[in-house]
Amino acid sequence: MTTHLTARLTWHDTAWNGRLCANPDTNAACMEHEHVRALRRLDVEAPHAGCGLVDLKRVTGYLPPCQRDANAFGEDAYVICHQDPLDGRNLPSVEEDVPAFSVCPTPYRWMLESNFRDICEAENLLIPAPKNPSATWVQEDTRQRQLLERFWGKLEKNRSLVFFYCNRGNAVDDEANRLLVGVSRIAEVANPTYFGQSSAFPGRFPVWSRRVTHHYPREGVRIPYQEYLHRDLDVDGIVCRPPRDLSLPFSYVAEHLSDGQAVSALLAIMTTVERLEADRKAGRGVDGDWAGALAWLDGALDEVWSGRGAYPGIGAMLRALGCSQGIGYHATVLRQLERNGRDPWQHVKDLFEGRRQPEADYAHSLAEAILCWRKMPSRHKLIDLLVRFELTTDQIADILNEDTRKQRGILATNDAILENPYRLFEQDCGTKRSAPVSLEVIDQGMLPEGDAARFRTDPPLPPHDHRRVRATMVAVLQRAASAGDSLLPFPTLVQRAAGFFPESRRCAADAETIWSSEDRTFHEQILWFRDVPAPESWKRADANAAADGADDELAELREDLGAAKPTEGERPILRLAALKSVRRWELEIAQVIKKQVGALADLPAEGPDWRALLTVPEEEGGFGEPQTGREHAAIDEKIMALEVLYRNRLSVLTGGAGTGKTSVLRIFLRTLRALEGPRSTLLAAPTGKARVKLQTSTGRPAATIHQVLSDAGMLGPNYRILETPEKGKLSYNTVVIDESSMPSVELLAALFRAINTGAIARLIFVGDPCQLPPIGPGRPFIDMLRWLRQAHPGCVADLGTCMRTDGAGGMAVGLQLANGYRDESPPGDDMVISRVARSSTHGDLTLMTWNDHGSLLAKLDEAFAMLNITPGDAKSFDRSLGISEEEWKRSEAWQIISPTRIHPFGTGEINRVVQERYRGRELANANNANRWPRAMGDQGIVFHDKVMQRVNEPKWLPEGTEGMRFVANGEIGIVTAAWKKKPGEEKGQDKLHVNFSTQPKASYRYLKSEVEESLELAYALTVHKAQGSDFGGVIFVLPRKAQTLSRELLYTALTRYRGTLIVLAEKDTEVLERLRNPALSETARRSTCMFDLLLGDAGADVPLPPRYRPEGLVHRAEDGTPMRSKSEIIVYETLKGLGLQPLYEQRLCAPTDPDDFCLPDFTIIHGGRTWYWEHLGMLANQGYRDDWEAKEAWYARHGFRDRLLTSRDHPGGSFGAVYADEIRETARTRILGH
């Protein structure tokens, strides 16, 4: 058994090459680390960017705070200085040489006093107890030395491997908490070094880190993230994360990794290196000897398989049975037996069954395990199985007990687990203290290699064993669900399953065997397979039908060349696959929706006088009498909306920002109560912040969906959603679900299981379908809305008139810009981009551009000035947030938002910069440990910081204090007090108090230990975290590229403001124009089948005859060109049928100004002339008509009027029908000259 090492690296933009970063001022990822934030000096680093650390120290005397790992893959050598890590001691520092390919990681978990007992038991250490058990860190020098000697002493040079990783502080993946960087073999672990002596603290105190040198590049591999980023390659394809059960070993900077865990980590790295080799061969990667790296990894894998042993779970099993020294007994006694060729588990069983006496040193500890074993004869076979897997003590203890097993979500019986151990992975949801069992752990035990397969009496498992195949497909579908897909085409599933493991352990599943053999019944226990005919709507119309039946010589040529002809009348059969649980969620939602559709009986023909209710004065809850055409239109559509909500058992209230959805809901609920009395009503929202907003705006109690599930008894350990309401279903007469675009199919289906849906008189969904889709599988709101528009349009209440105006009676300019990212946008939304590109500020919208990090910060200063914040002035900054006057509601007066947390333009860096500039005095005070509490949490939160609550949690308040005694995820507030623990108070902690904008009179207390989990800095938020909130002013930082960018993200960001919107766009308006493309939709990318089969990205994998094209939410022409509407598709196909080549949304600039432009629907070049075609959809709408008239005037003003052609919808259908004959006639007459 070999012990391996994990070593956390601080992100470095030139791959830890022993030099300063090439661009230290833009390395925001490294600032995730407290020591970097505290010690980095950009004034030194920026002028010496890229300088070798040897030269840097010689010239400046400075080394960066990442000095301990900056040479991980560097060839130079330099000297670093270790500083005393403990406050108050100030021991003299000590220097240490760092040769090439070396790091100095610190095992912080081993130095935490709270872990002391567990470590001693696991390692069989006899170390004196602490003098001060409440201390955070181990204090005594002798205890430090003994613990560190054991930690570092377990590593073997030329045998142990070192795995390098980054945590959240990486520039690659916004969602990755752990990112594998590479692996090598340890060449040397240096001898310990010691701090200097101090009379105040006598003793010999060791430096906690050790210098570790490794054999790279001769042995090892580094994943070239930096090279992919610099060359703008697809870095997402090479992201390598540790398996989900390896969170602990890849934590605390330095940790041990067992052979079994090393197998999992190596397999993950091998999979990535195989992709690197494939990218290189395809010309889309970077050069490197990836084949050689794979060969080395394969050899290392053989070693760790051998070291893993046949029974890696023995130690954890013994601890679960009561032997506190189980880990140590396994490592010392049993591993030696295994090396000598003896079966270690048989040895243990001989002890258990009295055929052998326990070793004297372990006899007392083993006695408890022996007694426990003898009390559970029915579980002996299960124990025999579990020791084959490298499970934790908590996992084994939970699995052995049927009650705790169920709490983890594992419903399989002992016999079922014995028959198929992969069920542990398939069903385990984990607990708060224990990660779910991973597929990799079970797969290693079921398909061991080398010496790990010794002592096995059962036949080897074939790589294509049906149990392994199913588990792998489950893993693939789980990943797909996390990415938003509720199902996949079966070919896609098989393809992804085949690539899940490295080639040497490939799960070579045969598609026909899975689909057609007797194994299908086994698979369908937890998977859903279906043969379905391709929907009729997928059949493409004859592309030449619009050309008056002209002969298609190209079609004849295709037939001559042998192209397949679809059989007339037959539809191709599609094969689909999903997790049965996810498929059930979709069907349950669809069933509720379909049953609920219909009109309410026994309502009077004459309903409430909605117009009178809407036009009462504002102080009475109405809007007042309409004065303008826009106000009249808004009142008219609200009357129609209220009537829809009133008369239907199921209704949807939808509309963009500023259209008055919440106001309509408030008036409706108030009127309904007056008419029908105080019937039970549920106002539900998906997040805590959305709940608070809903409750405040309606004046009625509201709940989060999770609160409803808790009330029904459907929340298990770790907030896991249970199948049935253990406390019984809840009954409501009226149910309103706000922010309906946010719940996933899992959450919405759970809500419907928690309530008695048969008792609902009115079920009302409220939301904006253009916002970000749910985190998790599906898009139930979008799919429901699409189905209702087609099958029951009378259930949908659309609000289209925006009452947030620009002062001149027109729609607010920022919202006009946002409309360009809706499916049906008005003409002229493209021209908003042009107007602000020319004049910077237009109405409530300002556009500024930046080129690099420095210019971004300068533009941020300009944006602050527009919000009456003097750059660098803490007083004006405090006034803007209400700090000066203690008006805590004003903490949401303005907000910076960004698409991402990472990168220099991400929220992490912006929060740091803003805090540094405007909380400088408070940060300085926090460094004075004698008077003030230290900054708290990873982000260093201090007095007067703006913060956001990260979790839903009840909080104590003194009796008589006004407040909810509950703080919701997403609430924003100000740190209004910070207290240092009292001198001599052993168990006390520093603490701070927060007043939230939604509960300004309540001051909630947070202990220092609670801050990291509960709070984060909130000067800047990601768009996802801002969803469901709005702010007085919004500064939106918009880069050209980010992992999370989509149409929905841009729309959501642009609609978060109430007063002022400032967009800080990188370089120019290119990203604003590009994201208008319907194909760049996150919602449309998903594949779902709640009412209809809609395939997103996965549709490309479906084998179909030429006449068929998969249908999704994106409207596509026959050649695949994405467009906004079906009407545009008809125009496009008709023009193509005439032999023209229309180009979609190409920029047309004014002759004298390239920044004055519009985006015609189609640009057509024919016969040396260029024509511009606009399709007009909703001319009956006053706002739409006004926008078109303005755009038409632009064409005329710049001399394009004579080349402008139009088509329009005609009455009929949801948006009218386009008459292809009229399009054809116009094109023939004007363009073709017929």
Fold and architecture overview:
This protein is of the alpha/beta class and 1234 residues long. The protein has four domains: 4-306, no CATH class; 583-799, P-loop containing nucleotide triphosphate hydrolases (Rossmann fold, 3-Layer(aba) Sandwich); 813-1074, 3-Layer(aba) Sandwich (Rossmann fold), CATH 3.40.50.300; 1114-1232, Trna Endonuclease, Chain: A, domain 1 (3-Layer(aba) Sandwich). The chain is 36% helix and 15% strand. Helix 31 links the parallel strand 16 and strand 17 (762-767). Helix 10 runs antiparallel to helix 11 (326-339) and helix 33 crosses helix 34 (829-839). Residues 542-566 and 1213-1217 have low confidence and may be disordered.
The dominant shape is globular
Q: What number is the mean pLDDT? A: 91
Radius of gyration, in Å, reads 33 Å
Structural class: alpha/beta
GO molecular function: ATP binding; DNA helicase activity
Protein name: UvrD-like helicase family protein
Keywords: ATP-binding, Helicase, Hydrolase, Nucleotide-binding
Pfam families: AAA_19 (PF13245), UvrD_C_2 (PF13538)
